[in-house]
Amino acid sequence: MAGWKQILVYFVLALLFNKVRCQGRVVGGLSMNIANTPYLVQLRTLRDGHLFCGGTLVTYSHVVSAAHCVREEILENTVAVAGATSIYGEGVQRLISSYLIHPSYRNVTGSEADIVIYKLVAPMLGRFIQPIALCSRQLKPRDRVLISGWGKLNEQSEPSIVAHSVRVPVVNRNFCRRNYLALYGEDRIKDTMFCAAELGVGDACQGDSGGPAVFRNELCGIVSWGRGCARPQFPGVYTSVWHFQDFIVKAVRNM
Q: CATH number of the domain that 188 lies in?
């Protein structure tokens, strides 16, 4: 009888362990292969290979990312990498020939128009590389977007070596606006943004900036800013691609 009790205890402990382990993985997403998100791009420093932001391929020669990711010497010291699941994977690499930041962007946390278009020196062609279409409609609460990148799996962890993804719902704008208003004392949630997270469970994190939020195989958001990662009161904030379609299309045409 004692033997059966011992087995039962081990069984319950195993279930609890697996539950906790899975919940921990959901916070930063589940590991994935780049074949599932062939539009996903790494932005690395050329000198040391450090991955500092993500991006999204919208044509074979243009990458959309967050304006706050733009650094000094961006043209001389940045390489875009596509077709690589790991931050150490070679994939297909291209230097940046030019870039265009939206004129309304201001270099402060919470600025609207947090969007930049990069023109690559040559098209990105290769296995597991495919541009994505732009958002065809404005997102609504409870629409579930797929976010992906190489950011932290939680606030205390190091950035991930391999790409992760998680599907999270768009959050009610009033809830998001009210909580950030209480935090900052001003309304930072603009109409050109949306909030999304599985509150307290799934969210983008540091290192995912500039990466995509995809809805029905269309690029609908760009990881922009937030407060921590997966905090119950503070969902991630995204630049709404639907609001900036004209800017993207004109930039791609003229760059």
A: 2.40.10.10
